[in-house]
Specification:
Rossmann fold, 3 helices, about 220 residues, alpha/beta, 24 strands, UDP N-Acetylglucosamine Acyltransferase, domain 1
């Protein structure tokens, strides 16, 4: 039976997820909630219904599934807060796995995980709730990816790595075998991480080094 789902957020990441949902064929998208777009605006063929304050009415009227379609650039806090808000209303947040991704049957995928086209997740890995494994990213064997993590396009995370909650792993970066990236840390685009990164740090470069200034 096809179930109803509402999209929370109407930006570029929403367009990617709308395509995945349509390809999977398991949900009927009833609309998008986003305060930045006028009601009635069409995004990838889906109408904007209004703001987030419609969530309770939608849930009461039989929409039991929600998709967090807000991506992140360095800061994952907005996505995390939306996830927690949606859960408080009682919505289910299904995992959305692109049919052209490659995911080992031995992988543990938690609630709300989004895996886009071309991503590869190898045997023995765990992906925490509300995390994004973006286009063409590679998660090698036996990795642990925490909650609310964004692994950006083209990232390579080598085997036996641990990525802490709410970390942001920038596009095209590489994390060498067996390392730990602490929670809330940011790895800059194109960085090569060859040593552990403590929580709430920013690193960039080849090899990656801690930076204090914003970038």
């Amino acid at each position: 039976m096809v179930q109803k789902i509402v999209i929370i957020g109407g930006g570029g990441h929403a367009k990617v997820l709308i395509e995945i949902i349509k390809l999977l064929g398991q949900y009927n998208i009833i609309g998008i909630l986003d305060s930045q777009f006028a009601t009635g605006t069409s995004i990838a063929g889906i109408p904007v219904l209004g703001k987030d304050d419609l969530m309770s009415n939608l849930y009461a009227n039989g929409v039991k599934n929600a998709c967090i379609a807000v991506g992140s650039i360095k800061d994952n806090s907005k996505r995390k807060n939306l996830y927690e808000k949606v859960k408080q209303f009682g919505f289910q947040i299904p995992s959305l796995l692109h049919p052209y991704s490659i995911i080992s049957k031995d992988t543990i995928i938690s609630e709300g995980v989004q895996v886009t086209a071309g991503a590869i997740i190898q045997k023995g890995s765990t992906i925490g709730s509300n995390s994004i494994i973006n286009t063409g990213a590679i998660i090698e064997h036996d990795c642990v990816i925490g909650k609310h993590v964004h692994v950006c396009p083209g990232v390579v995370i080598s085997g036996d790595c641990v990525i802490g909650d709410s970390a942001f792993i920038g596009a095209g970066s590489v994390v060498i075998q067996g390392l730990k990236i602490g929670e809330n840390s940011i790895v800059g685009a194109g960085a090569v991480v060859n040593s552990n990164v403590a929580g709430s740090n920013r690193v960039m470069g080849i090899p990656a080094r801690i930076v204090n200034s914003d970038w």
